[in-house]
Amino acid sequence: MRILASGISGGIGQAFRARVAECHPDWVVEGLARRPNADDHRFDLTWPLDRMVDALSQLPAIDALLCLAGADILSPPLRHAPYLERLEALYRVDVAGTVKTVQAALPRLSPGGIIILMGWDRAGLGKAGEAGELYALAKGALTSWGKSLAKSLGERATVYVVAPGWVQTRWGDALSPAERARIAAKTATGRWQTPDEVAHVLESLLTFPRGLSTGQVIYVNGGDVLPS
Predict the structure, then answer these.
(1) What's the Cα-to-Cα distance from 181 to each of 19, 86, 107, 167, 220, rounded to whole Å?
(2) Which end of the chain lies in a sparser environment, N or C, as judged by fewer CB atoms within 10 Å?
(3) Are 72 and 78 in contact, with CB atoms under 8 Å apart?
(4) Which phi and psi (to 5°) does residue 62 adopt?
């Protein structure tokens, strides 16, 4: 299996690559990143579509596309930026950037391939606070688009939206132990999810029998949010 993954340099992207290396040495992960290492490809979700298409034009056919990249509005410098500036960052990366990535990669996706988008477990239920409002707006839009994309593509591709809750990536690592514990205490399991757990779900979806499910939102939150 050949997989194209944006956001490969993030916590979940790195965990996914490590899991593939350990469990599926025959799989190939083509990573996309703004600041790529020697094994990855330079790719920026704020690029115009034609530049994205050019960047992917030399890659071989892929079996799966993982859209893991997202804007971080919880860490500096965006953490203290004006509300609409944070909204614009989320739109450019999480919404428009993801849509353009799918459009650029779709011609390279083999028939019956898999597309996985990254949502948020509270996108449809809401969360108080400016960050909650902004993430719900961006991830809610992306989730609805993913469901519509699944209907549009039909048998051409399977589409999933993975919706994590509190995942301890770099932002979580930067919090104080007391703040991490406070957040964990509010969850159903009393702990944060790990990037490796999300990576395990991504791997499982790539091996799930195709054609049985598409347009589904897969919640990865220990039951912290149970949408109807």
Answers:
(1) 27, 26, 45, 13, 19
(2) C
(3) yes
(4) -120, 160
**Distance between CA atoms of 97 and 49, rounded to whole angstroms?**
9
Residues whose CB is less than 8 angstroms from the CB of residue 199 and which lie 6 or more positions away in sequence, other chains included: 12, 15, 16, 18, 19
| AA identity, residue 65 | L
Residue 116 CB contacts under 8 Å (≥ 6 apart), including other chains: 64, 65, 66, 67, 159, 160, 161, 162, 202, 205, 206
Site of tokens 């054609």 = 211
CA nearest 73: which of 65, 83, 63, 64?
83
Q: Is the pLDDT of residue 2 over 90?
A: yes
Confidence of residue 228 (pLDDT cuts 50, 70, 90): low
* pLDDT tens digits along 55-72: 999 999 999 999 999 999
pLDDT tens track for 106-165: 999 999 999 999 999 999 888 999 999 999 999 999 999 999 999 999 999 999 999 998
- Residue 193 phi/psi, 5-degree rounding, is -80, 155
Q: Which two tokens stand for residue 27?
A: 């799989």
Banded model confidence at residue 102, pLDDT cuts 50, 70, 90: very high
Amino acid (one-letter) located at 3? I
Query: Where do the domains of the chain lie, and which CATH numbers do they carry?
Result: 2-167+194-220 (3.40.50.720)
